[in-house]
Amino acid sequence: MISYKFITKDEFVPLFRKYRPEIFQDNNDIDINALYTESEKEKTAELDKMCTTQYRLYLTAWDDEKLVGWSWGFQKSGLEFYMCNSAIFPEYRRKGIYTELVKKVVSKAQEDGFQEITSKHHLDNNAVIIPKLKTGFIIQGFETNPRFGLLANLICYKSNTILNVHNQRTGFKKASNSAN
């Protein structure tokens, strides 16, 4: 039976460092940091020191004592929680674990006051995009990212009123007489 546990950053980082290369070994991402000059890296490091993100979530999935997946993210603003990275070990995929991680992270972030939950995914990552669409995310846009390539930007609104405004602004739905 799979269990889920929110853990601290200090507990999560060693797990992430150990398993990320294994899980994402076939990904075609680029280490953009390696392309910067030493001066650019130093300046970026100084800016990073000033930009502290206090709110983070680290959710793990376990099969008894065996780590089988995770999802972690952080606060981008007073409104937005960004689901930064999720992974499920290959032998545990297509068993609903990822969907459960998404539901738990969204629930916790919204419970704590976030109005928007966002994420970015490779355009062909249907194993992630479809479960997110089924749990209330919508496609917000697309971008070309130098590190990851073409990405779909997804968002889940807590407020149905804001979702309706979003749908009106994209032309999906007509504006009602009461909303301008």
Q: Which structural category fits the helices and strands?
A: alpha+beta
Uncertain regions spanning at least 5 consecutive residues:
none
State the helicity in percent bands: 25-40%
Enter the CATH topology name: Aminopeptidase
Largest sheet: 7 strands, mixed
Q: How would you sum up this structure, described in words?
A:
- This protein starts with a strand and ends in an 11-residue tail after the last helix.
- The protein has a single domain (2-169), classed as Aminopeptidase (3-Layer(aba) Sandwich).
- The chain has helices at 9-23, 38-50, 97-111, 126-134, 160-169; strands at 2-6, 56-63, 66-75, 80-88, 116-122, 138-145, 149-157.
- Strand 6 (138-145) and strand 7 (149-157) form a beta hairpin.
- The longest helix is centred in the first third of the chain and has 15 residues, at 9-23.
- The chain contains five helices and seven strands; from the N terminus they run βααβββαβαββα.
- A seven-stranded mixed β-sheet has the order 1-2-3-4-5-7-6, sandwiched between helices.
- The mean pLDDT is 91.
- It is an alpha+beta fold.
Structure at a glance:
It is built from 5 helices and 7 strands, in the order βααβββαβαββα. It has 180 residues and is an alpha+beta fold.
Fold blueprint:
Elements: E1 2-6, H1 9-23, H2 38-50, E2 56-63, E3 66-75, E4 80-88, H3 97-111, E5 116-122, H4 126-134, E6 138-145, E7 149-157, H5 160-169
Parallel strand pairs: 4-5
Antiparallel strand pairs: 1-2, 2-3, 3-4, 5-7, 6-7
List keywords for this structure.
180 residues; alpha+beta; Aminopeptidase
